[in-house]
Amino acid sequence: MKINPYQPDQSGMAYSVGTTLDRFIKFKQSDFPFASGELSQLLRDIALAAKIVNRETNRAGLANIGGAFGQTNVQGEEQQKLDVIANIRFMRALSKGGEVCAIVSEEEDAVIDLKNKSGKYVVAIDPLDGSSNIDVNISIGTIFSIYRRKTPLGSPIQMEDIMQPGSEQVAAGYVLYGSSTMLVYTTGFGVNGFTYETSLGEFFLSHPQIKAPKSGKIYSINEGLELDWQEGIKDYIDECKAKRYAARYIGSLVADFHRNLLKGGIYLYPATKNNPNGKLRLLYEANALAFIAEQAGAKATDGKSRILDIIPNSLHQRTPLFIGSEEMVDQAIKHIEKSKVSATV
Ligand SMILES: O=P(O)(O)OC[C@H]1O[C@](O)(COP(=O)(O)O)[C@@H](O)[C@@H]1O
Ligand SMILES: [Mg+2]
Ligand SMILES: [Mg+2]
Question: Which residues are noted in the entry as Mg(2+) 1-binding (predicted)?
């Protein structure tokens, strides 16, 4: 991807590769005429927690913070120690930062109401994504969605503040703890990626205005579940194989999504017999990545509708997810629809 270090963005602001995240956030505040800095501060709070979690993931093997925590979360999944540590770190940063009134987390059964009278924002977060890869030194991540509360400041948090469709997100992003650590986010004005320079403790702009290729040659799906896939998926994957596309599946949504966003590709987690609504969670996994995908010119659907149009009805609800290069997602949907037609004939 050819990077033009001095490419101005929509607001005509020229910022260069190597700009610190802090400076970039300040620049971009001008995208919001009535901005008063709270969202900027919230993004900084998230970046701070990401630096701390990055340190914990890097030394997980040394500091005996690998392995199971000995408890299960509301999804019935065994929590890993790093799931819990990441959850605590982000909770602390979001509550201490002062901009947030409520948090939805994969690791918390219920909404965390921070009783913060001046907090404008609601955050939905997957503190540690790719938990099955924690102990084996494979890329993992954090996923976050930010919404403005609907009810008046200072009033009790209502479900309408929480159960907002993804199209209401004011910002969303992910952190990828991989061979390098990156923070990628959008506020609705394109997608920008920052790489963490550990020795300086700073995120630097490394991937300005990320644009996803319209198509690609990579598909990411857990083929071990092939026998349980919803109708149409096997036909699509057979088509990918016939076209000699490459199968790439890390098993960490953030890492698979990131690769396909940059190189072109599709990630599929369909409905299965065991998970008739798929595995991934709408509020703190699918919505954030769908916002990023669309802002980068890619697509995200549950097989029937745009992920961002889905009206949530429960905190930890799951959704099938087909996300990635536009033409590949369209092709996958064609197979799902075709399978429905042939099922009725
Ligand atoms: O092991 P499976 O069924 O392929 O599922 C892998 C998927 O589950 C996840 O690990 C779910 O996320 P968490 O690790 O946050 O629970 C995704 O990151 C990943 O893409
Ligand atoms: Mg996850
Ligand atoms: Mg998780």
Answer: 106, 126, 128
